Amino acid sequence: MRKMFAPVTIAALAVSGAARAEGTVEVLHWWTSGGEAKAVGELKSAFEAQGGTWIDSPIAGGGGDAAMTALRARVVAGNPPTAVQLKGPGIQEWAEQGALNDVQGVAESENWDSVLPPVLASIMKYDGKYVAAPVNIHRVDWMWANPKLLADAGIETMPTTWDEFNAVADKLMEAGITPLAHGGQPWQDATVFEDVVLGIGGAEFYRKALVELDQEALTSDTMVASFDQLRKLRGYVDPNFPGRDWNLATAMVMRGEAAFQIMGDWAKGEFLAAGKVPGEDFLCIPTPGNGFVLNSDSFTFFKVSGEENLKGQQVLASLIMSPDFQKTFNLAKGSIPARTDVPLDEFDMCAKKSHEDLLAAIENDTLVPSMAHEMAIPRSVRGEFLDLVTEFFNSDMDSATAVKRLSDAVARAQ
Predict the structure, then answer these.
(1) 275 burial type by CB count under 10 A (0-12 exposed, 13-18 middle, 19+ buried)
(2) Which band of pLDDT confidence, cut at 50, 70 and 90, is reported for residue 27?
(3) What is the rounded distance in angstroms from the CA atom of residue 327 to the CA atom of residue 136?
(4) 273/261 Cα distance (integer angstroms)
(5) Residue 396 backbone phi and psi in degrees, to 5
(6) CA distances from 346 to 63, 97, 338 (A)
């Protein structure tokens, strides 16, 4: 039975001998707009409320590329930030270079292992010790739908397989409705692709192909079938998709210009910001398949010295993982808590469904890390996937050729 934890207060931590209040942190991140800035502001406010000093170092641009360039320069100069927004294999890559401090003492005293999904906990660790703390869980395999458009086309049940989705999409097209809102950018193409791979091949195949980079899986008939389905989806988008930002695709569903969008649960924030009500103005449905594609934001602790900085890392780690902060942050971000024991009374129906499916995926071993969102493989290999998938989506390349070129590119990149 999962143990439930009361909210962790800094006062209680001081009494227990764990992380104490005060301390200084310089936090490097790329959350600079909209809901993201609001969410990181919640963390800053919570840290300062405990008497700590927060030095904000936001670096916009490139989905974190600019921040990573700045981080490398800082580390080389011997002046790393205290904590850095970092995710996936990037955490282990920095740890292998000896650039990280661990916060294992905090993790052990607060029993992080008992409240984090094992897949996520392993990403936060290096050599068995926590070197990062997750702030949330985003689900990638979501479809967002306009219920009025579906009703207008006579669609009463949601698709649970890709064949069913294709039938629904064909029906929408017959009614003159664009089935799929999509933004033609490499990461968006890859988001759709990995959701298709999960639905066509299942979680075990997904892991072999997109996490373990198994050549047999990459060259299999199942991968050919995944590209065949991606080609079908290409036929369901409008002609103006190239270069479109993801939030503009979300707006198409909101305005009734398209029936579905395949996108992670950050899209929900767009609907909520516009005053839309889940279950009434928009629907949230998992993409066809059985599993859960995990994306997670986290902060990684770099090798700093000095009592104030070390204290700051301990306090920040404890604060990030406290149930109260996990609730407040994720209500602002649109995601769900990384901790599986946080009550979701104040969360919407989509978040509750996400949490329910997360627990089922943990139980059934169908929780998989996102390739498209840098949770599964190194950036260099991910880049090969994005290049090939986007070229396929924007050309008449056949699926067999795509599979051959993808497997060759992955082999070269490893």
Answers:
(1) exposed
(2) very high
(3) 9
(4) 17
(5) -105, 25
(6) 30, 41, 16
